[in-house]
Amino acid sequence: NTLEKQLNKIFNDDNKFLTDFEPRINLSEDENNYYIHADLPGMAKDKIKMEIDEERTLTISGERENIYKNNNDNSRKEKQENEKEQTSTTTTTMDGIEMEEDQKNNNNGHKYSVMECSYGSFSRSFTIPEDGNIDNIQAKMENGVLEIIINKIRTQKSQTRSIQIQ
């Protein structure tokens, strides 16, 4: 019980939900294209926004919604206060720890001690090189990975020609 109390102080509910989401990015290129790959697990493509400005800055933004109830949510705090006014029963869990019924039902009956997944709003910006064709950017989302392909504009290789001097 002492160890659990110490762990609860470290992993209290307020700390579990204070993570910021910053998607991991891979940048690469080949002879014909520039590529941006963004890991966006659990996100649908309609939750992602992409914009490019006059200065050739591509911005990817969105929000990975927390699938768990946030302890900082005022509506949840109000609900908890209302539940405390009602009669609560005590239940013993599988590990022998007693908790009130409304605590047990928190987050669909799960009691979280570690949350490594991040949630929240994000925004990442990239400057597109001068030889990148900003008029024909392609993007697709598959298995939680956003792939952006920017075609390179092929520049004419200068050919040597003679100029006659007069």
Automatic annotation (TrEMBL):
Domain of life: Eukaryota
InterPro entries found in the cross-reference section: A-crystallin/Hsp20_dom (IPR002068), HSP20-like_chaperone (IPR008978), Small_HSP (IPR031107)
Basic and acidic residues compositional bias, start-end: 74-86
Pfam families documented for this protein: HSP20
Family as reported in the entry's similarity comment: Belongs to the small heat shock protein (HSP20) family.
Keywords: Stress response
All copies of domain SHSP, residue ranges: 16-166
Biased composition (Low complexity): 87-96
Gene3D superfamilies found in the cross-reference section: 2.60.40.790
Designated name of the protein: HSP20-like chaperone
Chain positions covered by the region annotation Disordered: 61-109
